[in-house]
Design brief:
CATH architecture: Up-down Bundle
Shape: globular
Strand content: under 5%
Radius of gyration: 16 Å
Number of domains: 1
CATH class: Mainly Alpha
CATH topology: Ferritin
Number of helices: 7
Order of helices and strands: HHHHHHH
Length: 194
């Protein structure tokens, strides 16, 4: 069942061609994103020990993201690429975090909904890489990841619906989704997932 919203900004196919031209840099960023995604899922566990309904699926999501990191790292090893010496600040995530409200409950809702949007964006961009890649290994790899990330987009909305009324969840998700599209329209393209 689809719980996430369609993205308001559609990344042009040319973005994928540019990312593939600097694919080593893209892979380093992708590896960083998977590590951060795993940490984010576990941070929800740490901050919400009372939300027992979602903890098992959060742990499963964290493990799946860590498995994705391992898969990206294995691809990097084959290509002789090292992890980046340090994870640079992601301007996309930085701008999204500014959208979070400050009260504990509202911030938690916003973080869950932004996680959904980020996962949907990742799925969209993995699909573009899969479609643009000529190398069959890269094409297959990103097709597999695209399907998984799309699933994660729904999971975080499902988590939110456990604790907030549906109209509130979708009203806020729509606002954040629109704002995310506006942010991406202003950011320059980089050989990075976001």
């Amino acid at each position: 069942m689809k719980l996430s919203l369609d993205l308001t900004y559609h990344t042009p196919a040319d973005w994928a061609h540019q990312a593939l031209e600097s694919f080593d840099d893209f892979l380093q960023d992708h590896a960083d994103c998977e590590r951060k995604a795993s940490s984010m899922a576990m941070s929800f566990v740490a901050k919400c020990p009372d939300k027992v309904e979602i903890i098992p699926e959060l742990i499963e999501t964290a493990l799946e993201e860590l498995e994705h990191f391992q898969m990206v790292y294995q691809l990097m090893e084959k290509r002789g690429i090292q992890l980046a010496a340090q994870m640079p600040k992601d301007p996309y995530i930085h701008e999204l975090n500014k959208l979070c409200r400050s009260s504990v409950d509202e911030r938690l809702l916003d973080r869950m909904l932004l996680a959904s949007i980020i996962e949907c964006r990742g799925a969209e961009r993995f699909r573009l890489i899969a479609e643009a890649a000529e190398d069959p290994e890269i094409k297959g790899f990103y097709k597999k990841l695209w399907i998984s990330e799309a699933k994660h987009g729904h999971i975080f909305v499902k988590f939110a619906l456990n604790y907030w009324p549906e109209p509130e969840v979708y009203e806020r998700l729509e606002k954040l989704n629109t704002a995310e599209g506006e942010i991406l329209e202003t950011l320059p393209w980089r050989p990075a997932l976001h």
